[in-house]
# Entry
Amino acid sequence: MEGSDRDKQIIRESLLQIDQLGTGYWCGYSFTWMACLAARIGESGRVLSMLDLYLRGFISRNGFHLNGDYKNLGLSRFKYRPFTLEGNFAAAQAVHEMLLQSWGGTIRIFPTVVEDWQDVAFSGLRAEGAFLVSAQRENGCTVRVRIETERDNLLKLKNPFGRCPVRWSGKEPEKLGNDCYRCRLNAGEYLEGEVLNSSA
# Structure
């Protein structure tokens, strides 16, 4: 979780209150929005839990999102079956938020990936600032990142590699004191980092 101590306190207290209130008056899409929120604050276990409840309780056999707890699993007091689209979109966004976040001027790669996702990759996900991001994890470690830009921009990347030595290509970023990298990219340029001795 990022932010000031006060921000973190407000988030923790808000989630505690939500947990105390329970899901009785939630619709299906409430679970996916909570998954998105959990991904933003780094709670990967809560993300998966919310997505699991959503998929078990609010998805019909054909994959449609039905707002109510039509299977009567005790997840919500609403038992109806209206079909809406936003729940599935938010579920996909929650997974996206686990893989890539780009808010506050900083790109974060694999910010909320669960421990079980030891080997995972994505290609061409969009980040704020007209960036296209691709990344790969092996054995629980980020081994490769490539960020291309569609317009001139300043790139700020939270270090996804931990303490591993990295070989950079395309551009050489400046290492900042707050565990971030920064470099200016012109339209069509890229920054690529690969962990040394990686098989990626």
